[in-house]
Amino acid sequence: MKINKIYLPLLFFSCVALGIVIGGLINYPVAKPSLSKNDYKTKLNRLINFIDNEYVDDVKTDSIVDLTVTNILANLDPHSVYVPPSEQTAVAESMKGDFVGIGVNFYNYNDTIAVIKPIENGPAEKAGIKSGDRILYADNFKLFGKKLKNEVLYSKLKGEKESSVTLTVFRKSENKNLKIKVIRDIIPIKSVDIAILLNKTTGYIKINRFAETTADEFHTALLKLKKSGINSLVIDLRENGGGFMEMAVEIADELLKDKELIVFTKNKKGSIDKTFATDEGNFETGKVAVLIDENSASASEILAGAIQDNDRGLVYGRRSFGKGLVQREMDFDDGSAVRLTIARYFTPSGRSIQKPYVKGHTEEYYKESETRFESGELYEKGKIKIADSLKFKTKKGRTVYGGGGIVPDVFVPLEAEHGQESLEYILQTGIVGHFVFEQLDQNRNAFKGDDFQKFQVKMLNNETYISLFEKYLSKAGLDISLNKSRALVNRYITAEFARQLFGENQYYQIILKEDKMVKTVLNGKN
To answer: Do 219 and 346 have their domain in common?
Structure first.
């Protein structure tokens, strides 16, 4: 086994209760094994061996070990977790920042692999795969009409660099099957979604997670925006659950001056490790705004806290998640891994932003977010519960608070109407993309020949799709009235049409135009 670098994982929930009940009449054909009081470290191994060798029925002892490890970790803290091989492969790939494959965005539509959009300049697009194509076979392996496990499906589409796969696709627009040979290549998994100008002097960078490539992606994006003449920068960390701590540190270093404290950690022995900025930053002057929400966590909070405590810029949005624990990952030979909390981190002012938790009560810990809906704090800053005992001072003497996330300098409420809080989150899931794909699939020619400008005119004030989307949600078991938030819904639908027809850049041009947080920054509210 090996020990990997410091890791702040993406947010996810895993809680398994393991109970062992021993009772009744028990007959042992051999003497019971005994354990000394000092033999607790080998107790688990001996128990597993005993079950494996003597239990009356066949038992998969590897699954027992998985459950036992999960149960042990569940009694430590909410972020010490066991990750089985199937999940670890996908997470490791995502955090690595690339994989080898054919390069398509797809989903399983009516038991068929439907291509939403081939990745620009990727192998599939170069080979001639188009949006709307159904992938029926990978070589001779059938992909439709059955529910394939993800690992099986991915194994057929991924492979070695420069290896080939012949795809049989059905093209609805031509009503025929086609055989297309695709040469697999490296496909980047971007952690920086977009870098664009909001106006002539303000740049915008959206970071979706902190992976191995994030600092490099951010650096490239920042230099590109600097060449455009920006003097203000908006960094969007909304819905960013975290990732590698080092990446947050490197990005903070781009913005902070030499020897300014970025973050420090403290382990069980009380050892403190401080990390300071260097003199190599590329945006150490100029305005900085950081956008956060209730799902911004971990590395996102490190970056936001460093900017806030050093008075480098303002933090906009809503109180962040509140994860101030640092994990280290230990890999096992079977592909599984354990992420164990090894330290707490603190912002430059000395704040721990870790929200309270009770060991062994992980479910309650993650349900804390529900109380934010109930208390109304997603609509009013005054509803945020702040302990006066956790006051800290920024470099210039401003008061900030610890003990449960980063509280923004400028509060911006949810856009959805009060009582429809869940709608805003639904709009940010894949369900909007699936709805738009199915609408385009019915009549892809409706936008044929339109450039982006003509598309926007066509969609302006067009609420046709809102009622259709409402029915789509109802069919999916989500009975939500959209009447109170029609403008918000229409914006997300229009933006998704733009993404599937034109690309990511056009998606953000539409989604950000009326974004409440972005408008607050641009209007100079503080």
So the answer is: yes
Q: What is the pLDDT, as a whole number, of residue 373?
A: 85
d(CA 238, CA 119): 24
| Full-model pTM | 0.88
The reported pLDDT for the residue numbered 339 is 93
Residue 38: the pLDDT is: 53
- 351: closest CA among 311, 296, 319, 394? 394
Between residues 121 and 373, the one the model is more confident about? 121
Give 323: exposed, middle or buried? Use CB within 10 Å, 0-12, 13-18, 19+: buried
Please tell me whether residues 309 and 451 are part of one structural domain.
no
The one-character DSSP state at 409 is: S
Q: What's residue 1's pLDDT?
A: 38
Long-range contact set of residues 225-231: C-beta below 8 Å, sequence gap at least 24: 225/195, 225/197, 226/282, 226/283, 228/197, 228/203, 229/200, 229/201, 230/197, 230/201, 230/202, 230/203, 230/286, 231/201, 231/202, 231/286, 231/287
Helix axes 299-309, 245-255, angle to 10 degrees: 30
Query: Look-up: residue for tokens 């041009």?
Result: 509
Distance CA 443, CA 324 (A): 49
DSSP labels, 59-85:
--HHHHHHHHHHHHHHTT-TT-EEE-H
- For 264, 265, 327, the CA distances from 271, given in Å and listed in that order, are 10, 8, 16
Enumerate the H helices of 350-420 as residue ranges. Answer: 362-375
Instruction: Encode pLDDT of 109-162 as tens digits.
Output: 988 999 999 999 999 999 999 999 999 999 999 999 888 888 889 899 999 999
Residue 219 within a domain? yes
For residue 43, report the phi and psi dihedrals to the nearest 5 degrees.
-60, -45
If asked whether residues 184 and 197 sit together in one domain, one would say: no
Beta bridge partners of 315: 290
Domain count, the chain: 3
Residues 6+ apart with CB under 8 A from 85: 334, 335, 336
